[in-house]
């Protein structure tokens, strides 16, 4: 296993700042000389008020920067919303009042270069670097469902920077409608909201995702049925992925994905049942960063710079740290 801590060098002598902008929360990590000197997770304010959100983000960034020994040259941002090349929010189902606003505005007072990456893509970066995984897929399950891909030691970002969106693979054309407007996306079936709804039906009582996790830990029959439902749906999507990009390993994380400890094993067993002769299937396991893969990836982006998003070999000895 490799050491994925940001390594200090001339460009980041003052330390780096990582920010994970999620659907329900904001997470920040300040790192100096390879050591975390500040970390904080804050839920978004109730309601959908982009102005209040922006003020909170700006205050949290200032607090994190104050913990560093010097001014950060770069800030890496893992973004759940769909962000354009100019950092304008193009879509964000969880917080629609942000659409049309600049996500970079709360960072302008930092004086740092701000680099944005898709949250699941950066999660794949962190998982790949930590496991020396040159061919890896990441699946994050939480408020939404995201995915990221590393192939041949390089991030696959695609034409618009968000390649590997596993949550929007259509697994059932007659399935529930996703927030994106399409019917049957994986996200519409296995997101935290979707699994809570399935558990509610299986249990016959209103059930939250936290109660589902507790039910799985106790091996409650209704929770087991919901876990099997999730594993079936995920394995179907990963079967397609395995044929298209042939990852050697698949890491399952995100807030809910990391909390459902038996999930990777069940997905692996279902995937194994679909193996073709002579065609190996990927190893399926939990994300090594648990629910924090996107934040770890944002720290790597800040430490290493934009080349990691532009097809550079993540493991080449000559690559900048």
Automatic annotation (TrEMBL):
UniProt entry keywords in alphabetical sequence: Kinase, Transferase
Coiled-coil stretches: none
Superkingdom as given in the UniProt entry: Bacteria
InterPro entries assigned: ATPase_NBD, ROK, ROK_cs
GO molecular function: kinase activity
One Pfam family this sequence matches: ROK
UniProt keyword Transferase, yes or no: yes
Name listed for the protein in its UniProt record: Kanosamine kinase
Gene (UniProt): rifN
């Amino acid at each position: 296993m490799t050491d994925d801590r940001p390594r200090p060098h001339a460009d980041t002598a003052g330390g780096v700042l990582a920010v994970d902008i999620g659907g329900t929360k904001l997470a920040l990590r300040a790192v100096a000389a390879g050591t975390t000197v500040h970390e904080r997770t804050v839920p978004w304010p109730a309601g959908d008020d982009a102005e209040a959100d922006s003020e909170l983000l700006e205050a949290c960034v200032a607090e994190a920067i104050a913990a560093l020994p010097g001014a950060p040259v770069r800030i890496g941002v893992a973004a759940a919303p769909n962000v354009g090349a100019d950092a304008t929010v193009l879509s964000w189902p969880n917080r629609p009042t942000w659409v049309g606003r600049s996500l970079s505005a709360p960072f302008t007072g930092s004086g740092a270069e701000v680099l944005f990456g898709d949250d699941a893509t950066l999660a794949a970066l962190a998982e790949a670097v930590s496991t020396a995984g040159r061919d890896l897929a990441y699946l994050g399950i939480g408020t939404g469902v995201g995915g990221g891909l590393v192939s041949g030691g390089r991030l696959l970002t695609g034409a618009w920077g968000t390649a590997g969106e596993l949550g929007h693979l259509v697994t059932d054309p007659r399935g529930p409608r996703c927030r994106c407007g399409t019917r049957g996306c994986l996200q519409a079936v296995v997101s935290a909201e979707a699994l809570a709804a399935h558990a509610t039906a299986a249990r016959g009582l209103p059930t939250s995702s936290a109660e589902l996790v507790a039910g799985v830990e106790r091996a409650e029959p209704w929770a087991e049925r919901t876990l099997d439902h999730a594993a079936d749906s995920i394995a179907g999507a990963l079967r397609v992925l395995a044929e298209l990009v042939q990852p050697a390993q698949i890491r399952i994380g995100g807030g809910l994905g990391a909390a459902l400890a038996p999930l990777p094993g069940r997905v692996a067993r279902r995937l194994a049942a679909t193996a073709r002769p002579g065609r190996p299937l990927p190893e399926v396991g939990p994300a090594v960063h648990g629910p924090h893969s996107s934040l770890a990836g944002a720290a790597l982006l800040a430490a290493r710079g934009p080349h990691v998003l532009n097809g550079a070999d993540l493991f080449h000895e000559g690559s900048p740290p």
